[in-house]
Amino acid sequence: MATIFHLGFSKDLSLILDDADDYNVIIQVGENQNIKEFRAHSVILRARSPYFKSALSKNWITKKDNMIIFNKSNITPTVFYMILKYIYTGELDLTKQSGENILGLLIASDELLLEELFRHVRDYLIEKQTKWVHENFVLVLNVVFRLNNCKKLQDYCLESICENPLPFFSSKIFSSINKEILFDLLERDDLQIKEVIIWDYLIKWGVEQTSGLGNESSNRAKWNNKDYKKLKKTLNQFIPLIRFTEISRADFFDKVCPYRTIIPNHIYEEIEECYCKDALPKTAILPPRTGYPFEIIKPILAKIIVNWIDKKDTMYIRTRNDQSYRFKLIYRGSRDGISSESFRKKCNGRVESLVLIKVKDTNKVFGGYSSIGFCSLGNDFTTDGSNHHRFYNSSDNFIFSFEDSEDTRHMKISRVVDKSQAILDSDYNGFNFGWGSLTMGNVSLHANNYSNNYENNLKTDTVYTIEEIESFNISYQ
Length: 477
Hints:
Protein name: Serine-enriched protein
Strand content: 15-25%
Largest sheet: 9 strands, antiparallel
Mean pLDDT: 86
Low-confidence stretches: 380-386
Helix content: 25-40%
Distance between the termini: 51 Å
Radius of gyration: 29 Å
Structural class: alpha+beta
Number of domains: 3
Number of strands: 16
Organism: Rhizophagus irregularis (strain DAOM 197198w)
């Protein structure tokens, strides 16, 4: 077996980078007042970067006094030093770097074809620079939409915006957002904001993007037919993405009708038919957005639960190629009554389902996923005294808990161990995961693991009072 001495190797190459006098490449980076020269070795650059392998070929290079001279004005000195450090030693420390420098490193590593570095920086922005990314969505999106290899970060940004869109739409720099980004955003079904608000901001964006309509000319009372035609041309591709049936009649007549001339006739006629005749949309109007049906948990926890269903890492970042889920609310305690009887009436049947429970006197949230439903799964019960019950089989079920509605650090999941006893369908419980691992007893929630049907990760032996409970059927889209 070979012995590896990476530490000493990396240290020696670091000395070559900082102090060696046998360099043969001078690279000038930066522009204006922020310019710096770096000294490097062509053999190392070629070996570590396909970009430099081509750039330092005889056809590209400029030589002066037998020295290769190279310019990269579009990369800052701070970013380029991190790149050289990585190339020479394989080391990278981003903990003290600003978000702007890390984003610049992402751009530079893409240009220099440093795929390993690119993937690391992309994931670091998602996982460690969340706050900065959220505060600079427009900047980040305008950058990553130009990078072919950055779909993961694109999707992360768009999904995060969809969870809380208003700060993004109302930001001062929203009007500068690239039209491709806006199109991708409005196309999404999970944009969680009232449609009339989307319409308002789309009009504002269109006005700013249309020559002669912004600033002093934004007063619609002064517009003529030519102005409306210009706005229509700007917004032509976006109008079909608006879910007009989600806009109330009052808002439609107050906020949409004044822009009648920018809406294609076939769409406007269908809208009028929907409002005047209560007809269903035909082909021109998209169906309502799926929205966010959960009240007990925040959107980030729904993502975690979906990852658990997919048996992926808790904080896995989903892409559009991943399976998409639709959650249909079928039972809510505050609406339908908190009792085992009402739960069983609403949640009857062999349907893939999720249940969430908020308990009193604490912020804790419990829940369970069942690929086969919770109750009334069949009619062939066995009899135990006056009670009817039967176990049902599933290898996919799990139960879980969160410390509060947005806990992403202390959540616990217990997957089914004895798949033959995954669900107990009993006529005196709302639901029963295993034999009492997580059970609804009318207005109470029992959480223990005496039967060992599920993993013992929840580590609780408590009877709680249910404050709120929700159940959802799950389908795919």
